Amino acid sequence: MSESASPETKVVLAYSGGLDTSVAIRWIQEKYHARVVALTVDVGQEGELRGAIDRARRNGALDAQLVDAKETFVTEFLWPAVQANALYEGVYPLSTALARPLIARTLVEVAQATGAGAVAHGCTGKGNDQVRFDVAVHTLGPHLRVIAPVREWNMNRTDEMAYAREHGIEIRTTLESPYSVDENLWGRSIEGGRLEDAAQPAPEEVFDWTSHPADWPKEPEEVAVEFEAGIPVRVNGRALGPVDLVQTMNRLAGAHGVGRIDHVEDRVVGIKSRETYECPGAIALLEAHRSLESLVLPRDLLQFKALVDRRFADLVYEGLWYSPLREALCAFVRSTQEVVTGSVTLRLHQGSARAVGRRSEYSLLAHELATYGAESRFPQELAVGFIHLYGLPNQLAHARVQAARSHRQGEENVPRVARAVLRASG
Ligand code: ARG
To answer: For the chain, how many structural domains are there in total?
Structure first.
């Protein structure tokens, strides 16, 4: 964007209320001679969002808007992720990654509604979030410029504080923590400070949604989660709306310390970094969903779906939510979910959430086939023939490999056992 845009230029800034984006309001005005609309998207981050909005106005924003996107976040982003058992590198439920496309979409919508020519975000040039925001905005609003003050300016925290003082910018009165935190309904990410030393355990002070290990209940707690077509709808028999349900699971699982994640993560920009998360509700719901799927989906579908699930997680991490591939993967996943209806009992205990029971009217677990009891109707006598045919191709292939090896190496080098096999198979 030209640095001498007309004073009519409007920029919609994704505003969190923290130091970076508070300073950014003024910085964008100065550097781009633009007016700033501050936009805060409520995806379930805690903290005083109303207060942040008022502060944005006092700090010179032309307008400041708060959009409650919690329900959309759950139904359009989190439920598909649950259905796809989405865990990046097998451990990270993608809490930050799933919120970015929704925030970006809201930025584009507000830019359109207010006639803004650009959007801005507070991402650095080292992370994944810049990729997710930029790609989503370029995709949904190709006419919009993207400004990333933190990526452009050369300020550290001390510089930002000085800039705020010089310009009379009001910042949050509560003590700024030494950590960088991102939060939404699906979890918290905590970075920076002492966490950057991957050799050291995360200090207890970084956790907020999971209780201190000393307070984890000695006794396990069982929680029943019911799903309809792959979507959680009831907890302990109570029907809950999407937002309520996720919050309830965060509370129940958080009390037992479930969902603390210590991850050496591979970022899109090629950096490895130590990431710390707490995602109690996400980890519990994903465990329940995975367990229910194991009951109702056939083996070949489970195996193939695991590939699709893995691809979905990578794609979300990599910022490609608004892509034909994401839609196609979701369509596949959805097509597998009509039988993922039933109930799972989770046992929460000392930092873990494990499925210890599951039932479904679509269960493929047939008692009369699986039981070792007298009521078994599995025709065991057919097993011998089945195994013979099943093993035949392997028996043949093994013999051929042995033959090839013996031709190459000369018979002397082939162990006696293999020679015996060769003789037997002619
Ligand atoms: N590494 C995580 C991710 O890429 C978390 C990023 C946290 N973002 C933040 N602005 N603090 O999804």
So the answer is: 3
Q: Give me the residue label for tokens 């979890």.
A: 187
C-beta of 89 in contact with ligand 1 (< 6 A) = no
Establish whether residue 265 lines the binding site of ligand 1, counting it when its CB lies within 6 angstroms of any ligand atom: yes
Q: Is the whole model's pTM more than 0.90, yes or no? A: yes
CA of 189 to the centre of ligand 1 (A): 6
Q: In what order do the strands lie in the sheet with 118-120?
A: 63-68, 35-42, 10-14, 118-120, 145-147
Residue range 67-77, pLDDT digits in tens: 999 999 999 99
Hey, which residues are catalytic here?
20, 100, 129, 180
Q: Does residue 275's CB lie within 6 angstroms of at least one atom of ligand 1?
A: yes
For residue 92, the enclosing domain spans: 10-177
d(CA 158, CA 226): 50
Residues 301 and 206 in one domain: yes
Question: Which residue ranges in the chain fall short of pLDDT 50?
Answer: 1-2
- Answer yes or no: do 117 and 187 share one domain: no
Residue closest to 342 by CA, chosen among 280, 295, 284: 295
The answer for residues whose C-beta is within 8 angstroms of residue 386's C-beta and 6 or more apart is none
Distance set, CA 131 to CA 119, 124, 163, 165 (Å): 14, 10, 27, 31
CB–CB of 337/83 below 8 Å? yes
